[in-house]
Amino acid sequence: MTTLEATRSTGGATVTVEGLRVQYGVRTVLEDVHLHLSPGERVAVVGESGGGKTTLLRVLAGLTGVTGGRAEVTQQHAAARVRVMFQEDRLLPWLSALDNAALGLPPHERPHAEAALANVGLADRAAAFPHQLSGGQRQRVALARALAHRPALLLLDEPFGALDAMTRAGMHALLNTLLDETGATTLLVTHDLDEALKLADRVLLLRAGRVAVDVRVPGERPRRRMLLEPLRERLEAQLHGAGPE
Ligand SMILES: Nc1ncnc2c1ncn2[C@@H]1O[C@H](COP(=O)(O)OP(=O)(O)OP(=O)(O)O)[C@@H](O)[C@H]1O
After folding, report:
1. What pLDDT shows up at residue 215?
2. By alpha-carbon position, which residue is closest to atom 23 of ligand 1?
3. Which residues line ligand 1 (CB under 6 A)?
4. Tell me, what's the pLDDT at 127?
5. pLDDT score, position 3
6. Residue 61's pLDDT is what?
7. Beta strands in the chain (DSSP E)
């Protein structure tokens, strides 16, 4: 088994969201959201702060209940494996990088964690504890942990928000390679339009709890930045409420 085979998911999940409504008390955070993700599709969700991005991700993770409508994550008509990666690495300080990557896996699946750690370039730091690793390395362990579970749906909530620009660029390249290999359906919440355009095939813009824009990113990956400039400018304007929808 090669390391990439070990972390390859069994294909991507299908996500179906219909008429989704989420309220916290009297406050409506998501309203009449419709969304369909095909297996292997990569979608970025952008939008103003408080627009409901994280809430949508949490609904798909099963962490937040819905008030109305439905949200389903399936694979071949069964519930699909879902993993979430957050802005904070959420590593346990008393566990080694490998033990963190293997957290929650049954013992016979531990080789998947070893393979995932190798895939993020940290095979030689398997015995290191989180405090002995840089911020970028810790996020790579967090990514390895998510991938070791071979998720059919990978949910990323501002996963690189706390990293410096250089480290973030390295993570983008790594994530693109690993996602190509795993085939997982991916939903990325980000504030960074460049990150969205680099990693996703489709960008959703949430405004006031609704999908205001749902646009396909043109061209094949890796995409030339210059070709994306018109879409970037359009999304930038829409993000700040200035552009037409
Ligand atoms: N558990 C909760 N109880 C009450 N209100 C909440 C809860 N979680 C989120 N909210 C509110 O719901 C709204 C949407 O929050 P959410 O985190 O989904 O937005 P977001 O688009 O991800 O924002 P940001 O970009 O700032 O992270 C916000 O106004 C937030 O204060």
Report:
1. 93
2. 50
3. 24, 29, 47, 49-55
4. 97
5. 53
6. 94
7. 14-24, 27-37, 42-47, 68-75, 78-79, 82-85, 153-157, 185-189, 202-207, 210-216
